[in-house]
Automatic annotation (TrEMBL):
GO terms for MF: hydrolase activity; ligase activity; transferase activity
Listed InterPro entries: Amidase_dom, AS_sf
Lineage: Bacteria, Pseudomonadati, Pseudomonadota, Alphaproteobacteria, Rhodobacterales
Name the record gives this protein: Glutamyl-tRNA(Gln) amidotransferase subunit A
Organism: Phaeobacter italicus
Entry's EC annotation: 6.3.5.-
Domain Amidase: 27-451
Gene3D superfamilies: Amidase signature (AS) domain
Coiled-coil segments on the chain, per record: none
UniProt key word Metal-binding: no
Pfam families for the chain: Amidase (PF01425)
Length: 479
């Protein structure tokens, strides 16, 4: 195979070939590194190039295999790691200039789990300051661009991850999500992801000097952004391997028991006062039809407390951020991010004191309602955003910008507050006046059943094909 053919392979196909011995780990990594060298200067998705150590690791994997070692499930698969997660010997800068020399003493659990499975880290991807924007730009590493064009933000906070994997830099991209930071980049770039539920993936940064706030612990999760849904089935079983450094991780298998009979899907186009764009409407109809064709029973129905749960959850999170992070943001953040946070606090007035404690407790009320609802409807198909994805720096344009970027994203952060899995998958390519743009939909699932959401993503993907193939044609035409 040529190097171009190799980097185009899905993670699933690539792992099958490296494990069978049809390709070496060095072949796989070399192809991705060359693709990175070709396109990353324009995208600025990867901000720390680890090519040299990646090739050294790939050669060691090949030698170990030659000596009789059993290849791991991700043998030789190139991956990227977001710069807010510890990787031994590298800076966990989180997009903040003051943290540029915060060198990790050890690997975070997700880095260890990926490498234990045979994956090879080829680079570290960009994030906004403090990983707290739905766009990706910072004074330390600069702006990341969307491979579809500069008319669309790459999303955030895992914007470097989404841009890299869809452009062909690595088959898997690590990211994380406290309010949408896996799903925003997936939607922006036309990628696939599943935000795992609470307790699913072990998490901890050995470099941290204090524990995070309790809502940050309960709402933030680690995950992967991929080009195909099948790649999530390939890689997530390795990512969820237990790690004693996360005392609240729940060691459960990736696949749950089969659901008896046709799976019922609750379907809603409700946007809670925001206008539903015709292209998002069309994407939802494609997704619904694909699921029906695949044998799901899809019913349009009112959902329990999405808006209230989402707004309450994000206002509570802003209360915790105000109390625990505001001084750091004021001291180390740029004027841009300080201004954005000021508007966040206007859009989501922070709960404080007794009211904050009451709203944190109310989380269980919302989660119980959804748990009961999902006894009948194990999957929930909704918009992710009511409009096509926004332009770069839209969240710097005051209250109106933040309202469009984050205020309308209740389906996103509601799932973080509830602790439920939520997948994002492209269902349409919209040809808009400013250029082509993928449109993703969201599929929520019950606790511990990420696999059901990914299965549904596969059904939708089978209808529209791989969005990356369309993207690569358009990138080649622009070159």
């Amino acid at each position: 195979m040529t190097e171009t053919e190799i980097w185009r392979l899905s993670g699933t196909d690539l792992a099958a070939r490296t494990r069978a011995g049809d390709l070496t780990a060095e072949d796989a990594v070399t192809a991705s590194i060359k693709r990175m060298a070709e396109i990353n200067p324009d995208l600025n998705a990867v901000v720390e190039d680890l090519s040299s150590e990646a090739l050294e690791r790939a050669r060691k994997l090949d030698l170990a295999r030659k000596d009789g070692a059993t290849p791991g499930p991700l043998h030789g698969v190139p991956v990227t790691i977001k710069i807010n997660i510890d990787q031994a010997g590298h800076a966990t800068s989180n997009g903040v200039t003051a943290l540029k020399d915060l060198i990790a003493p050890d690997d975070a659990p997700v880095v260890k789990n990926l490498q234990d499975a045979g994956a090879v880290v080829i680079g570290r991807t960009n994030t906004p300051e403090f990983s707290f924007r739905a766009d990706t730009d910072n004074p330390l590493h600069g702006r990341t661009h969307n491979p579809w064009g500069r008319h669309i933000s790459p999303g955030g906070s895992s914007g470097g991850a989404g841009s890299a994997v869809m452009a062909g830099i690595g088959a898997l991209a690590h990211g994380n999500d406290i309010g949408g930071s896996l799903r925003f980049p997936a939607a922006a770039n036309g990628a696939v992801t599943v935000k795992p539920g609470l307790g699913r993936v072990p998490a901890w940064n050995p470099s941290q000097s204090a524990e995070r706030g309790i809502l940050a612990q309960n709402m933030s999760v680690q995950g992967l952004i991929t080009r195909t849904a099948q790649d999530l089935h390939l890689a997530m079983p390795s990512l969820i391997a237990t790690d004693p450094r996360d005392p609240f991780h729940v060691p459960m298998p990736w696949r749950g028991d089969a659901v008896a009979g046709p799976i019922q899907v609750a379907f809603s186009k409700e946007t809670y006062g925001y206008d539903l764009h015709p292209q998002v409407d069309a994407a939802l109809e494609v997704a619904r039809a694909a699921l029906v064709d695949a044998g799901y029973l899809v019913e349009e129905i009112q959902l329990p407390d999405v808006f209230d749960a989402g707004r309450t959850g994000y206002r509570a999170l802003m209360g915790e951020v105000y109390a625990l992070m505001k001084s750091d943001i004021d001291a180390a953040g740029s004027q841009t991010v300080r201004d954005i946070f000021s508007v966040y606090f206007e859009e989501f007035p922070p709960f404080a004191g007794q009211e904050l404690l009451q709203m944190m407790a109310k989380r269980t009320h919302y989660a119980r309602g959804w748990s009961l609802f999902m006894q009948d409807y194990p999957l929930v198909l909704t918009p992710f955003l009511p409009q096509p994805f926004f332009k770069p720096d839209r969240d710097t344009e005051g209250a109106e910008g933040v309202h469009e970027v984050l205020g309308c994203a209740v389906y996103s952060y509601a799932m973080n507050f509830l602790g439920l899995p939520a997948a994002s998958v492209p269902a349409r390519l919209a040809e808009l006046p400013n250029g082509p743009q993928p449109i993703n939909v969201q599929i929520a699932a019950p606790r511990w059943r990420e696999d059901l959401a990914v299965d549904a993503c596969q059904a939708i993907e089978s209808r529209i094909g791989r969005m990356c193939d369309v993207l690569w044609e358009k990138m080649a035409d622009r070159a």
